Amino acid sequence: MRHRLKDVAERAGVSVKTVSNVVNGYQHVRPATRARVEAALAELRYRPNLSARNLRKGRTGVIALAVPELDIPYFAELARHVVAAAADHGWTVLIDQTGGGRERERVAAAGIGDHLIDGLIFSPLSLTADDLTDLDGVPMVLLGERVDHGPADHVVIDNVTAAREVTAHLIGLGRHRIAAVGAQPTPEGAGARLRLAGYTAALTEAGIGYDERLVAATPAWRRADGAAALRHLLASGTRPDAVFCFSDTLALGALRALHEAGLRVPTDVAVAGFDDIEDGRFSVPTLTTVAPDKERIARLAVDLLAGRLGGDRDAPPRELTAPHRLTPRESTA
Fold this sequence. Notes:
The chain is an alpha/beta fold. It has helices spanning 5-12, 16-23, 31-44, 50-57, 73-87, 102-109, 129-134, 159-172, 190-205, 223-235, 248-260, 294-309; strands at residues 62-67, 92-97, 119-122, 140-143, 153-156, 178-183, 215-217, 242-245, 270-272, 289-292, 319-321, 324-327.
């Protein structure tokens, strides 16, 4: 049996309005009255009718997370944290895969469907700041590097600093022929360009010359791309003593290619990745990586969206940086 506010009010000996004030967190209820109402809520196991509440507010209680690829572990792990953070607001999360395609991203940015979602957390690859400005969609928080200082709130990590730190870690181990795997010269490759900039900065700071033969471009950041890039590097006669892969999935592919070539990790070639996905903690060897705080990224994004839905929709866009840490493991030990 689902109890109503009226049932709680009768149990606590107060008005329905007082129960509503307690349920909605209003602060002007006297402590003794609040305690009595909270006891009645617990005894009756009262659960608020979120659908009715959202209907009164003109809301659906649903937000969306739109990412390029769901089978990339980073996005899957991020989605888990977004769902957990959204639950604290009583929200359900609709997860959409755009494939990075322009038209699919436009549908997501426009709100997916009429009155289907209240807000959007969005990691675009194809759309630009101008595209997003032209769309009259739902309140939005951006993730990733494709659009910065744009028309919406934005949560990022410091890719340049993180890439410089992991490259400096490899240099500190005495490695000087460090390959960079995952470069992407296309407009969609903003994150790759930032990580390449950090890699290059660390080489310069150490007095190591940039060698374009050690930089491998990949069409995507999947395991197969990492394996193919390493096979191509080795077949060309280029022999790195370390490899910085711009994602952990690339690094896992690189580990496979190095194993096939009979090269030992880290004795012959040290390997580091980026993202700290769970797979890297169980690979052989375990994977040194940059660990973005995915839980913090999700929490910041959800809280920014809650602020927009709570009344500050017209405030200037904010850009927040989530922390990261370098996590050395066996692949560079």
